[in-house]
Amino acid sequence: xxxxxxxxxxxxxxxxxxxxxxxxxxxxxxxxxxxxxxxxxxxxxxxxxxxxxxxxxxxxxxxxxxxxxxxxxxxxxxxxxxxxxxxxxxxxxxxxxxxxxxxxxxxxxxxxxxxxxxxxxxxxxxxxxxxxxxxxxxxxxxxxxxxxxxxxxxxxxxxxxxxxxxxxxxxxxxxxxxxxxxxxxxxxxxxxxxxxxxxxxxxxxxxxxxxxxxxxxxxxxxxxxxxxxxxxxxxxxxxxxxxxxxxxxxxxxxxxxxxxxxxxxxxxxxxxxxxxxxxxxxxxxxxxxxxxxxxxxxxxxxxxxxxxxxxxxxxxxxxxxxxxxxxxxxxxxxxxxxxxxxxxxxxxxxxxxxxxxxxxxxxxxxxxxxxxxxxxxxxxxxxx
Amino acid sequence: xxxxxxxxxxxxxxxxxxxxxxxxxxxxxxxxxxxxxxxxxxxxxxxxxxxxxxxxxxxxxxxxxxxxxxxxxxxxxxxxxxxxxxxxxxxxxxxxxxxxxxxxxxxxxxxxxxxxxxxxxxxxxxxxxxxxxxxxxxxxxxxxxxxxxxxxxxxxxxxxxxxxxxxxxxxxxxxxxxxxxxxxxxxxxxxxxxxxxxxxxxxxxxxxxxxxxxxxxxxxxxxxxxxxxxxxxxxxxxxxxxxxxxxxxxxxxxxxxxxxxxxxxxxxxxxxxxxxxxxxxxxxxxxxxxxxxxxxxxxxxxxxxxxxxxxxxxxxxxxxxxxxxxxxxxxxxxxxxxxxxxxxxxxxxxxxxxxxxxxxxxxxxxxxxxxxxxxxxxxxxxxx
Lengths: 384, 384
Hints:
In chain A, 33% of the residues lie in helices and 16% in strands. By secondary structure, chain A is α/β, with parallel strands linked by helices. In chain A, the strands form four sheets. An eight-stranded mixed β-sheet of chain A has the order 1-4-8-5-11-12-13-14, sandwiched between helices. Chain A has a two-stranded antiparallel ribbon with strand order 2-3. In chain A, strands 6-7 form a two-stranded parallel ribbon.
């Protein structure tokens, strides 16, 4: 871990939409004040032309890489990609990562204090969209004095935010890397999210979202996480990881304990998750993902609408075994980008690891991202 | 419904393993007395050579077709396939369908009275296997005086029982039609079942399975059913059925009600299911399906083991969009059958409707089953 811990980072907080201002959300509701927790790595050039916004997936946070203290060995969620000498090289680029609006890792979300009532929001928190998350990130980027991002990078729900950035603020995004993502959820993806939400809301400790200070809906949230986990892995990766291996001995246990390795893995993932994540945030973030439809961000209608007038360069990456957001959904996106005459590179990476592949070491992904960033940085001088 | 209601059927009950006898289960546990609820259609020939055992899937029952009274319009679960002039023609064949052991539709299961305690079994009910279900069906077939079945037919978990029948009692099965099934669950299938079970066990009303007479774990069971439902449909069928259609109006609702059609469909399915099904039965039957491994029924080891010495004719059918038990799993089965030199027909039917396709009208399935049964009935005279 020595090369990781050489990179000290600290969680910082940016608060905006303070009285008398408020953030106006896509729903028309208003929210304020709004805090985003964020971290940065690397140094912004004088030309302010090397900033890369990295956006986390559903349950991630601002801690993309580095460590908080020299003795802190907790890695960031994308150490494989971000750091000195990595594909997103922090010796070259200035990397920003913020916890998403609606999250529970320092940014304003349903577990935050509602200044009107003096109690946590719970379900009084307004429903958010992917666009609202991007609006909040834009305020942070403005605050940091960055006129134009070299790149916006993110996978999964983070990739949706990348797309919304490009549609909303094309003039601020030189390059975009949406990974393992989709322009909109299929009915099946909505269905999985809905069942996960139902599992949370079925937990009596959920109490209509008003559980702060008391027992939490841990059992429901664990089930929700387990459902998600199955969709993040592929059938093949589960076969390789677990097959039909039995946990303790070479015999069926004939009771309802976790007999198969895959069962105990899921239970472990579910139980670990509830320690770090807020159930209401899970509801809000999955709903925002379900609501996302790139066409809603179109200045003009039609499949190319969202990217009308854009000059952003794109690297779109999908993974063969990702059945949550299959390659075909990335191809739909690529076709829309090409119809706008945009500079698009597309790669489907062979991987057995399902949707989660973008978080796992991959030489192919590393070299694609590294080369793409180097090219756009070289080809697009500051201010252009 | 007139041609359906011309076929009156009645639910009958067969009880065996009465004191001093008991049914010895694969786990070594003993169970008794055991009741199977069953229904029959058609007339058994004097040669007793036209009996077809139809086996229902996970949550089905003995009511495969016909109606209980002339005014009763409730259809059976496989009206498309079973009845006069249907593929499984009850003017020609004598059809038997029993509710599975461990079920909750009249057969002995965890909701039945434990004669030792005078209370429902709950989790005191022993864990069952697919083989145990077949053992109970065998007792019923013996009771009905049928020396050899013309065919055993079933889809999904019913198909597993078809395979176990052929492995256990090859001399009693002339022909077998396993549909949309698998010789063993993948880690992913086990994972889905495990999360569904966790959803039930997370419901405080479950009370370790001891909920009879009080509030039932309906919320947990509804979530479990919703998870199952997603796996029974295909991504494509969900797209065709629901797409991203919104329920009430052409706008996002911005709250946690069921906004998308697919959400309200799932909630409806979940709520409807709890009215008719017992949560403990769901636990036991899914566990039996997870435990099933055709190799465990092998007289000799190796991929062909389970069918060593068999002379059964097989019609194996899979469906292109079934991602729960994909075609490749049927092919594995077919290879094992062929290695034993058995008479095997295999067909992968093109369908968008996922795993549930075997329950839906299909001319292809109809003609395959009809022709296969006619051939084996013609080619295998009674007593041979």
